[in-house]
Design a protein that fits this description.
Number of strands: 14
Strand content: 15-25%
Order of helices and strands: EHEEEHEHEEHEHEHHEEHEEEH
Number of domains: 2
CATH architecture of the largest domain: 2-Layer Sandwich
Radius of gyration: 20 Å
Largest sheet: 6 strands, parallel
CATH superfamily of the largest domain: Dihydrodipicolinate Reductase, domain 2
Distance between the termini: 7 Å
CATH class of the largest domain: Alpha Beta
Structural class: alpha/beta
CATH topology of the largest domain: Dihydrodipicolinate Reductase, domain 2
Helix content: 25-40%
Oligomer: single chain
Number of helices: 9
């Protein structure tokens, strides 16, 4: 299978290459694509060196699959051109997520929506993925009425420039003396601002969590109230999630449901100080849940803490898993 990675030199693109290797995705010809300044650079994949090429050359080779992590503008321009030559595109940007003609997929939840007619498929936002994976089985059994979520998102969610900013600050750099991705210093700080602010006072990142939840669950009646913040952590997003359910539940039943949910790991033993933390999620594909407790302020309320490696399950791994579904359904050559 001719497989393209667009944005191969970026933080997520690099991880996509690793995940393709780890999961033994059947690639016969690897085609790395990046910006003009990276053309000719060699990328290691499956024990071979492959030269970075332009998007034009990649399209000319008529690939079977292209996975994108190069930003919405690049996806808007290039994804239709790849699909026009019969290539399936799985896009990690925000470009196609809310397009009613495109599927938005978390394979453990809604892989069944993919059909032979889908040539551009959207990968959800990282914060949405890790929230919905544990919420989906609860919604199926108890019906979710409302979700209030606060996120604590790693600088890796902003890419290499943000990581460089925090490292410069930790090395003693003074504000204004190094390139800054954020409006403020991030080390020893928390910035309650991810993406642009909208007229309703929420940010685009927050509204992604609202709109993507409705689309993936196929239920616009669920109330979703998010607050997203950037924290000085190098990897792994954390979320404090409060859920109001329509039916009664027990914590024992919730733990049992999650223990049987693919992609979810329960870490919940406060007596032994066991709970999810981003440092220990790095390099793993599961979503980790813990700090389970009933919310005494509302009937049928549940609080829990949720952690995941945002570059893996929140981006690269989920993208590759979508490609695996396309393969299993016979929409890609084996």
């Amino acid at each position: 299978m001719k497989t393209v990675v667009v944005g191969v030199t970026g933080l997520v693109g690099t991880r996509m290459v690793e995940v393709l290797e780890e999961r033994h995705f059947p690639v016969s010809e690897f085609i790395p694509v990046a910006s003009e300044r990276s053309i000719g650079k060699r990328i290691s994949f499956n024990g071979k060196e492959w030269p970075v090429v332009s998007a034009e050359e990649a399209i000319a080779r008529k690939p079977d699959l292209a996975i994108f992590s190069a930003g919405a503008g690049i996806s808007r321009e290039l994804a239709p051109r790849f699909s026009a030559v019969g290539c399936r595109v799985v896009d990690n940007s925000s470009c196609w997520r809310m397009d009613p003609t495109k599927k938005l997929v978390i394979p453990e939840i809604n892989a069944d929506v993919l059909t032979a007619d889908d040539y551009i498929i959207a990968n959800p936002n990282c914060s949405t993925i890790q929230m919905l994976l544990p919420l989906w089985p609860l919604h199926k059994k108890y019906t979710i009425k409302r979700v209030v979520v606060s996120t604590y998102q790693s600088v890796t969610g902003s890419g290499n420039p943000a990581v460089a900013q925090m490292k410069a600050e930790r090395a003693g750099g003074k504000w204004g003396e190094y390139p800054a991705f954020y409006h403020y210093p991030i080390d020893e700080n928390v910035i309650p601002h991810i993406d642009d602010f909208l007229d309703n006072g929420y940010t685009k990142e927050e509204m992604k969590m609202v709109n993507e939840t409705h689309k993936i669950f196929g239920d616009d009646s669920i109330g979703v109230s998010p607050t997203t913040a950037r924290v000085p952590v190098l990897g792994g997003h954390s979320e404090s999630i409060n859920v109001e359910l329509e039916q009664d539940f027990s914590l024992e039943d919730i733990r049992k449901i999650w223990s049987e949910t693919p992609g979810v790991t329960v870490q919940d033993d406060p007596s032994r100080n066991i709970y999810p933390m981003p440092l220990y999620s790095l390099g793993k594909d599961d979503v980790f849940v813990g700090r389970l407790r009933k919310d005494p302020s509302v009937p049928r309320g549940l609080n829990f803490w949720c952690v995941s490696d945002n570059i893996r399950k929140g981006a690269a791994t989920n993208t590759v898993q979508i490609a695996e579904v396309l393969l299993q359904k016979g929409f890609l050559p084996k």
